[in-house]
Amino acid sequence: MRDEIIRNLEAQAVETRKGILQIAYESGRLAHPGPALSCADLCTALYYRFMDTNPDDPYRQDRDRLVLSKGHACLVLYAILSDLGYFPREWGKTLRHVNSRLQGHPVLGKTPGIDMTSGSLGNGLGIGLGMAYYTRLQGSCKKTYVILGDGEMNEGTVWEGVNIAPVLGLDNLIAIVDQNYFQSCGPVQSICPMRNMKERWEVFGWKVLEINGHDMREIVSALEVATNYHGAPVCIVANTVKGKGVSFMEHDNSWHQKVVTREQYEQAIKELEEAK
Questions:
Q1: Phi, psi at 95, each rounded to 5°
Q2: How far is residue 210's CA from residue 178's CA, in Å, rounded to a whole number?
Q3: H or E segment and range at residue 54
Q4: For the CA atoms of the chain, what is the radius of gyration?
Q5: Which pLDDT belongs to residue 148?
Q6: How much is the pLDDT for 128?
Q7: Which of 36, 124, 140, 178 is 20 to 30 A distant from 70 in Cα terms?
Q8: pLDDT value, residue 243
Q9: How far apart are CA 72 and CA 74, in angstroms?
Q10: Residue 40 and residue 116: Cα distance in Å, rounded?
Q11: Any idea which architecture 2-274 has in CATH?
Q12: pLDDT below 70 — which residues of the chain?
C-alpha cells in the first residue's frame, strides 16, 4: 500500500510540473518556473496526501493552511489548486494579466484556495505562526504549513518567528525550507551564505528533519513525523534543485523569472512525459 501511495504521488508531481509549465507558457507573461519546480514534489505531497482542505468550501474555518512565503513560486499553487477544482484551468491563461484572478504572487481573496497574500519575502513564517497560534486557541488540531526559500532566510524577520514559535510550543506549525541554493540574483552562498541550515533551526528549539526534497519517500516520511510530533514546531529542510524536472532549467538561475516559448514548453513537456 505504501509503495502505491508513493508511486501515485510521484505521478501526480509530474502532472504538477506540467501544470506549472502550461500556465507559464499559455499566459505569455514573465513567470517564475524555476522556483516553482523546485518545490513541486513538496507541495504535491502536502495537497494530495496530508492537508485537510476542500475546494467546495475553501475557507472553512477548521482546515489546514499553507503559506507560500516564497510567493513568487505561486505557479505551483495555481497548478495544484486548479487540478483539485478550486478554479477552472482556463484561468491559467490569464496569469499576470490586468484584473486576472491569478496574480504574479498569491493574493488572499482573489484566488480561491490561497490562504495568505505573500511575496514580500521574510513575512510568511510570522504570519503562519499567528495562524497556528489562533488555531490552537480555537481548540483545533489543524496544521499550518509555511514554505520558505533558503535565500529568503537572509531576512531578519524570519528569525524572529523562528525564535518565538518554540517558546509558544506551536507543534501545529510546520516550516519547510526549499533549499535550492539560489535566490533571484544568484547563488545564496555567493550573496549571503546560510550555512548549517539544520543546526540554525535546532538552536532555537525546533525539531528539524533534513531530506532530499525530490525523493517522495523521504518527503512522505518526514511529513508523517512532522504531523505527529508534539512539544515543538517542526522544520523540514528540503534539499532541492531549482528548475527540477526540466533539463535546461535545472541549476540555471536565469529561469528564476522568464517567459516560456512554445519550443521550450514542448521540449519540457516531452522530457516530463519520458521521465514517467
A1: -50, 125
A2: 11
A3: none
A4: 17
A5: 98
A6: 98
A7: 140
A8: 98
A9: 5
A10: 19
A11: 3-Layer(aba) Sandwich (3.40)
A12: none
Strands (E) across the chain are located at: 65-68, 144-149, 173-179, 182-183, 186-187, 207-212, 234-239
The SS3 assignment for 184 reads coil
The amino acid that residue 22 corresponds to is: Q
Helix, strand, coil share (%) of the chain residues, nearest 5: 50, 15, 40
First to last CA, the chain: 20
- Position 276 scores a pLDDT of 76
3 Cβ contact partners less than 8 Å away, ≥ 6 residues apart: none
Cα–Cα distance list, 138 to 131, 142, 269 (Å): 11, 10, 45
Cross-strand pairs, 208: 235
Give exposure, 53-79, as e/b (b: 16+ Cβ within 10 Å): beeeebeeeebbbbbbbbbbbbbbbbb
User: In degrees, to the nearest 5, what angle opens at C-alpha 147 toward C-alphas 142 and 153?
Assistant: 130
Q: What is the pLDDT of residue 127?
A: 98
Query: What does the pLDDT read at residue 208?
Result: 98
